[in-house]
Amino acid sequence: MFVQNRLTAWVEGVTSQIKLPLRLELWNGQKIDFSNDAPRVTIRLPQASAARYLLTPSLSNLGTAYVEGDIEVKGAAHDMINIVNALAKSTLKADGRLARIVRTFTHDRKKDAEAIRYHYDVSNEFYQQFLDPNMVYSCAYFERGDEDLETAQLKKIDHILTKIRVQPGQTLLDIGCGWGALAIRAASKYGARVVGITLSENQHALATERVKAAGLADRIEIRLQDYRDVRGTFDRITSVGMFEHVGLKHLPEYFGIINRLLAEDGVAMNHGITSTDPDNGETPYGGGEFIEKYVFPHGELAHIGAVLKAMQQGGLEAYDVENLRRHYARTTAIWTDNIESKADKAKELAGEKRFRIWHVYLAGCSYAFDQDWISLYQIVCGKAGRHPRGLPWSRDYMYEGQTRRV
């Protein structure tokens, strides 16, 4: 009775501030609606002990309860995330332990490899359930805003390769090459000679297979290699969706390595997620805690200001900076719809728990990008004080004929 009284008082406190299309089903069969509207989300507490998650409804608490099966949630992921964030805002203070805290982690080759394999080596087929046919696991580029995912991902790759002016015969290093989409496009369409590196064994195997199938084994080499171990000089370097794993303290070193590998007149592109908190803080209300625990171990996001500072410390000069936050909000929204529409297959491939993690993670990312809690920047750069070969004076070259490219 004590728990139920506390829960009743909590519901009254929430509904006095906001009306939500939410139904709460208790362990004793009681049903509580948070508004007169038809519920879009139903949260069921199988036992009284599960009430503790709702009484302190941080994104970490509720996410953990859902993933671990301590509560049952029915509804579309986008509705779930909207309602959970509303519960957090109406109950918790966005400061103290639930603020946009900054946590740093120790990074070394062993820990970084383990973190990468935890996230990416689920199964290639699992990722195929929500990615585009080319399996591009990074922000798409919606040139007009109405493209389908496959088209937008190809436009993203072209946008990057056009920005850095890849020319036939040039050497390109793709740091964190994923399943090989950018490497294959760079070689087949732009005539580059490509080295792609990844720490994921699953990605390495499939990317190598795809390169061979495309008849490009003479122009593309896919390596299972840490970026810190790469040697040589490259005319162009791309890093897409990788530097989030580097660690805040190691960003100057990371950019210094890119500087070392880049030709004197070369051009590089860093494409990655950033924090919008000037102090490099995580998403609020425990969102960062959930991601660290279940999704990206040891992942750290820097503010764009910190990224540009670290880039300069690494001896690189930024030539162009573009914010694609809205593009990633749309990309992750599409991924969420895709995985939801193929839920049965995704659960079969990765298990119920792993499905739940990605289900709420993708929807949560879409919400976070939409709310400007996190962002996505593409930065074109080169060695500081040099004159990059073939880079025009204006931005016009980046956009000429893009619609005709796909």
CATH architecture of the largest domain: 3-Layer(aba) Sandwich
Shape: elongated
- The CATH homologous superfamily of the largest domain is named Vaccinia Virus protein VP39
C-alpha-based Rg, rounded: 23 Å
Q: Which structural class do you get from the secondary structure elements? A: alpha/beta
Helix content: 40-55%
Quantity of strands, as a count: 11
Q: What top-tier CATH class of the largest domain fits best?
A: Alpha Beta
Termini gap: 63 Å
Mean pLDDT: 91
Total helical elements: 16
Strand order of the largest sheet: 7-6-5-8-9-11-10
> Strand-and-helix sequence, N→C?
HEEEHHEHHHHEHEHEEHEHHEHHHEH
- Percentage of residues in strands: 15-25%
Number of domains: 2
| Largest sheet, strands/sense/barrel | 7 strands, mixed
CATH fold type of the largest domain = Rossmann fold
Q: Low-confidence spans: pLDDT under 50, at least 5 residues?
A: none
